[in-house]
Amino acid sequence: MRKKSISFIFASLCLWGVITYFLFLDRPIGREYNKDNIEGQIDDIEKKVKQQFAENKKFIQALKHNLKDQKKSKDAISAILVQNLDNNEPAKELVDKMDRQPRPIPDQEKNRKQVDEIKHTVSDKFLPNGNPVIAVLVFSCNRITVQRCLDQLISLRPSAEQFPIIVSQDCDHEPTSTIIQSYGEQITHIRQPDQRDIDVPPKEKKFKGYFKIARHYGWALNQVFLEFGYETAIVVEDDLDVAPDFFEYFSGTYPLLMRDSTLWCISAWNDNGKSELIDENGHDLLYRTDFFPGLGWMLTKDTWMELGPKWPKSYWDDWIRKPEQRKDRACIRPELSRTMTFGKIGVSNGLFFEKHLRFIKLNDVFVPFTKMNLTYLLKDNYDMAFVNEVYRSRVVNYTELKKDAIQNPGPVRITYHTRQAYKNTAKMLGLMDDFRSGVPRTSYRGVVTFFYKGRRVHLAPNANWAGYDITWS
Ligand SMILES: *[C@@H]1O[C@H](CO)[C@@H](O)[C@H](O)[C@H]1NC(C)=O
Ligand SMILES: *[C@@H]1O[C@H](CO)[C@@H](O)[C@H](O)[C@H]1NC(C)=O
User: Fold this and answer.
1) 376 lines ligand 1 (CB under 6 A)
2) What local confidence, expressed as pLDDT, does residue 134 receive?
3) What does the pLDDT look like over 12-22, one tens digit per residue?
4) Among the options 317, 383, 433, 469, which is catalytic?
5) Which ligand is nearest to the CA of 424?
6) How far apart are CA 455 and CA 272, in angstroms?
7) Is the CATH number 3.10.180.20 carried by domain 378-473?
8) What pLDDT, on a 0 to 100 scale, did the predictor assign at position 38?
9) Main-chain phi, psi angles of 168, to 5 degrees
10) What is the pLDDT of residue 5?
11) How close is the Cα of 419 to the center of ligand 2, in Å?
């Protein structure tokens, strides 16, 4: 790419030189000059053109050097980033530790080779047919149910070239490794090499799992973006079922993520996606949300280059939701979830699954998102329309809504002005009532939009809302 542009600049400059030369030649030189004079002039011009050529050449050389230096420093930065990320410690200690580490086991060597091969082949963002290459990063540890997730991803993906699957395994759990290996070349299996115990503050001992997850995420995302060199990735965990249009959803929304810098993720998940709270016919409905939903989400390398260097040691999902990270950016989320967790035995608590997650409805109708016009989701189009719909809707109270006693059709609004009022109403309606960094789940501009008894409802603050209050929790 760079070589091409340098050749292009060089060619243009040469062409320009030649044109100038001929322009001077063609210019009528006036009768008063005799032949010698003219020849002298031509010599002069020739000299000038040659000079110009020489200068152009110098300029190109300088440009080439500059680009090389840029690349060098970019590589150096990447190397430092990787180091910092993996260990958060100075290089010397790192080297010492590396020396003490066991030699790689043969399997890891094999992975290494596989990684090198793939690095070699990932040369571009797009396939010849114009489709973007999007890596699917599956996080795995010690659950053999990863098989269920992989079977679905492999059978649903429209193309292995477009959606290469990388399974990153932590934990060195042999039965799980065996299962992952059994997929052969359909996937790439990588293993988080740092299996050392993590120093966890005494108070957080029981949350050690979250420290391991953060370490694994940091390492694996670095692999995908820095080692393999992918430009975009979908993050999936080993306990997810996916909808038939899972890949179509991400392909269709990919241009939004590229185009709108106020978006930083596409999520497959609706936190309030239970049957009673969604329009079950709204398969194609999509929204913007200030709340980072996770659970099947797409991000770009650029976002990772920003987050990676400061990646936290634990609780990465709450960390990513903080204003310092989010910087007022939003995600796209669907009305009907495109992922669904089939049960968590592990770090996060089973109660949450039993009480909530297992009621989320998984979309079962294929929506051709890549053929749809989704520009309404770009911030410039969306915000005006959204605010208009929300604040022009009729205000009702919970009792009226619950009794289904509203006469007019169309969307309605329930207002809230305090943290407690939000929580009370959310609880009564069966919505998630928690906040992260002051943002209620699925909220956009403070508004939580859902569907209730056949009607669109917005749980909304005042129209003069001035932003999230991070003390609300
Ligand atoms: C897509 O929709 C927008 C409105 O959101 C409209 O302005 C635009 O013309 C549409 N584009 C096409 C190709 O239909
Ligand atoms: C809800 O609104 C109805 C109709 O305006 C009213 O009669 C009722 O008192 C309100 N209920 C509450 C709890 O405010």
Assistant:
1) yes
2) 98
3) 654 565 554 54
4) 317
5) 2
6) 15
7) yes
8) 57
9) -100, 125
10) 59
11) 21
